[in-house]
Amino acid sequence: MNWDWQVFCEDTIERQVVQGCFGKNGDVTYLDWLLSAWGWTISVSLCALVIALVVGSIIGTLRTLPDRPWTVRLGNAWVELFRNIPLLVQIFLWYHVVPAIFPALKQVPGFLLVVLALGFFTSARIAEQLRAGILALPRGQRYAGMALGFTTFQYYRYVLLPMAYRIIIPPLTSESMNIFKNSSVAFAVSVAELTLFAMQAQEETSRGIEVYLAVTALYMISAFVINRIMAFIEKKSRIPGFIAAGGSGGH
């Protein structure tokens, strides 16, 4: 098999090899394009992850509030809605259907719509994980907070949530890695991320093996970095000897 990695040093217009592999004087090489696509992938993933963590934390907490049946039902509805619709369908709904219903959103960049779709999709999964983490806590932790005179907000803020987040760091790590992989659906609405680059560059260069290997390597690097960051957080936040037991920490 004859591989040609020099393809990344070619400019995207005349297909001439550029010395140093980076474009000059307005020229763009396939390496420039690859790194730009990687930047878009990281941007989509990190922005969606922030939304997923914020919204997922709110919804997950609402689903465990005591004596709030309608709030719990609202949280359950959110999870069932966004978890049971395929991500690609949600991308198209946000990009084509929602702007048609709300014309003001037609001016919103496609990048932001993709971030919202990916963030809300992942928020449903994080909400379920946080709910499980809260319910896994010993019931006595909630009672201890109440005995100290804490309001519901306070014992969630200072007692339940800090412990629940520690419990769910491993599944959060998986979700954080998955969000980088799921960002590939952004190609469907022409966000210039890695998958779209791979498809177009392969057609232009006929060097699909080299292109897809490079893209795969960047996805792996992204997932590995987020994995190591989450592992560091887990190590630093671990409470020696703590094992969740008893359950029903939110009730």
TrEMBL record:
Compartment(s) of residence: Cell inner membrane; Cell membrane
Superkingdom to which the source organism belongs: Bacteria
Transmembrane region(s): 37-60, 81-102, 108-127, 147-168, 180-199, 211-233
Keyword list, A-Z: Cell membrane, Membrane, Transmembrane, Transmembrane helix, Transport
PROSITE patterns to which the protein is assigned, alphabetical: ABC_TM1 (PS50928)
Annotated ranges, domain ABC transmembrane type-1: 38-230
Family: Belongs to the binding-protein-dependent transport system permease family. HisMQ subfamily.
Name the UniProt record assigns to this protein: Amino acid ABC transporter permease
Organism: Comamonas squillarum
